[in-house]
Amino acid sequence: MPSVIESIQLLKEKPWIDLTHGVTSKIPYFSAFQPLKKTTLFTVENEGFFAEKYEIVSQYGTHIDAPVHFAIGQQSVDQLSLKELILPLLVIHKEQAVAKNPDYELTVADLLAFENDFGRIPPNSFVAFASGWSNRWQNPQAFYNYDESNHAHTPGWSFSALQFLHEERNVQAIGHETLDTDSGASYLAHKDLIGERYWLSQGKFQVEVLTRLEQIPATGAAIVLGVPKINAAPGFTIRAFSILPE
After folding, report:
1. Which CATH number fits domain 4-29+57-243: 3.90.550.10, 3.40.50.2300, 3.50.30.50, 3.30.300.30?
2. pLDDT tens, 110-142?
3. How far from 90 is each of 185, 193, 196, 243, CA to CA, in Å?
4. Contact 108, 160 (CB under 8 A)
5. Is-above-0.70 flag for pTM?
């Protein structure tokens, strides 16, 4: 049995991939929110140390959504257990399908096809939907992808796929590259984020606005989440990275 120190050394010999976007005032953000505001409070030149004040909404950039974000009485960020912050990572690669159809919804059929190729999705894992959408990050208008009627055309999870992952596979968390769990078409049809509301109401969490998922293999990797411990927070900007098997 390797020691903890030996295990750390082994992990550091593997490839590590940053899954996090940099945070600035220029990045895409959810339409109900405001961009980051930054104020310099002290400088090394004047006061001998550098400090800034950041005004930031809890769901900004690459961020975690705790269950309480959509469900009263559920867990907040600080109540997530430490062992939930490092999980086996499985990635459903649908970049080509999304490139052909920006309204694409990941389905139960997609999940079953994944299992046919890679084996059953294990319980207490993290399942990510790789859509390639993060390639639009530097162009906010392309990332939002609104049409002339101001309707977003963005990919997302189907409601049935989320039900399957919770009820049939007991997955711990999900992640995606877009700002929302639901597709733009689903939101337009229901006037609500029904998938996100369902998922978080089950006591599960998610990470939104991931990047570089195209570099992660379908199975064998881990995801690690650096999450601030802010009491009763519904979510917050995080640092997420993956450790690859080889």
Report:
1. 3.50.30.50
2. 999 999 999 999 999 999 999 999 999 999 999
3. 25, 24, 19, 12
4. yes
5. yes
